């Protein structure tokens, strides 16, 4: 059996308003949960209560997703800022100066 090899390179991943997209999806799941709540008895009579709980699970997982993509977005921005700082002539590996650094420490009289 021959190994399949691609004939062209894979495209770059699309980047867009990820945080807004995940937030919008989470809001939709939560609104669907609230819209189905008054009909819980109808769903229960027909054995479809999983519809209600699926919407709640979608909203809960969406909250985790919002947390994740916000952290990811912040990390990407930090990385880009760090690379831009290195490109501007900063020494690689040099972090921000702290109060323990003698050049930054203030002397009180």
Short description:
The protein is mainly α and 109 residues long.
Task: Record keyword descriptors for this entry.
mainly alpha, single chain, about 110 residues, flat
Summarize the structure in words.
With 109 residues, this protein is mostly helical. The chain has a domain at 18-82. Helix content is 59%, strand content 0%. It is built from 3 helices and no strands. The chain has helices at residues 18-36, 40-45, 49-87. The longest helix is centred in the middle third of the chain and has 39 residues, at 49-87. The model has no long low-confidence stretch (mean pLDDT 85).
Spatial separation of the terminal alpha carbons: 80 Å
The number of strands is 0
Approximately how much helix is present in the residues? Answer: 55-70%
Biggest sheet overview = none
Rg, Cα atoms, Å: 25 Å
* Assembly level: single chain
Strand-residue proportion: under 5%
**pLDDT < 50 stretches:** none
Structural class computed from helices and strand pairing: mainly alpha
Average pLDDT: 85
Question: How does the SSE layout of this entry go?
Answer:
Elements lengths: L17 H19 L3 H6 L3 H39 L22
Helix pairs in contact: 1-3
């Amino acid at each position: 059996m021959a190994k399949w090899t691609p004939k062209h390179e894979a495209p770059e991943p699309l980047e867009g308003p990820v945080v807004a997209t995940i937030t919008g999806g989470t809001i939709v799941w939560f609104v669907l949960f609230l819209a189905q709540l008054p009909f819980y008895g109808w769903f229960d009579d027909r054995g479809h209560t999983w519809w209600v709980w699926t919407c709640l699970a979608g909203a809960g997982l969406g909250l985790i997703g919002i947390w994740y993509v916000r952290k990811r977005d912040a990390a990407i921005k930090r990385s880009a800022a760090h690379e831009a700082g290195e490109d501007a002539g900063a020494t690689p590996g040099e972090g921000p100066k702290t109060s323990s650094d003698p050049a930054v420490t203030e002397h009180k009289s």
